Amino acid sequence: MIYGIGTDVCSISRMDAAERRHGDRFAERVLGAGEIVEYHRRLAKVRQHGIHYLATRFAAKEAFSKAIGLGIHSPMRWRDCEILKLRSGQPIITLHEALKDWCDARSLRFHVSVSDEADTALAMVVAEVNPSR
């Protein structure tokens, strides 16, 4: 059963401006431990790839917060929701701390899709009640 659906669109140039203005502080506030490693890897290789990565993760976390109905309010914290990838490239949501506990208590599981093109990053998250729990 669907619990909630969230979508978000993010301006990549807005993320670029935030990164230029605040440096790593912005990314470190938004990205979790696993994401920050990938962000720095991409940024070092081709700066714009890092910015696109940051924008897709930002959009996915906004979409996630909408799908669970909390917005960016406790227990939803930016760094406790990570958008990682399986070996196949499929994006997955990995949760930590109180946010993980909150979602586990509701038996939620998630499906996430992210995309970016030119100056736009897009994400969609579907939260569903896990019937096997």
Automatic annotation (TrEMBL):
Catalytic activity: apo-[ACP] + CoA = holo-[ACP] + adenosine 3',5'-bisphosphate + H(+)
Cofactor: Mg(2+)
Gene3D superfamilies xrefs: 4'-phosphopantetheinyl transferase domain (3.90.470.20)
EC number: 2.7.8.7
Coiled-coil blocks: none
GO terms under cellular component: cytoplasm
Subcellular localization, as worded in the UniProt entry: Cytoplasm
Gene Ontology biological-process entries: fatty acid biosynthetic process
Protein keywords: Cytoplasm, Fatty acid biosynthesis, Fatty acid metabolism, Lipid biosynthesis, Lipid metabolism, Magnesium, Metal-binding, Transferase
Record: residues binding Mg(2+): 8, 62
Pfam families: ACPS (PF01648)
Chief subcellular location: cytoplasm
GO molecular-function term, one example from the UniProt record: magnesium ion binding
Domain 4'-phosphopantetheinyl transferase: 4-104
Family from the record: Belongs to the P-Pant transferase superfamily. AcpS family.
Task performed by this protein: Transfers the 4'-phosphopantetheine moiety from coenzyme A to a Ser of acyl-carrier-protein.
Protein name per UniProt: Holo-[acyl-carrier-protein] synthase
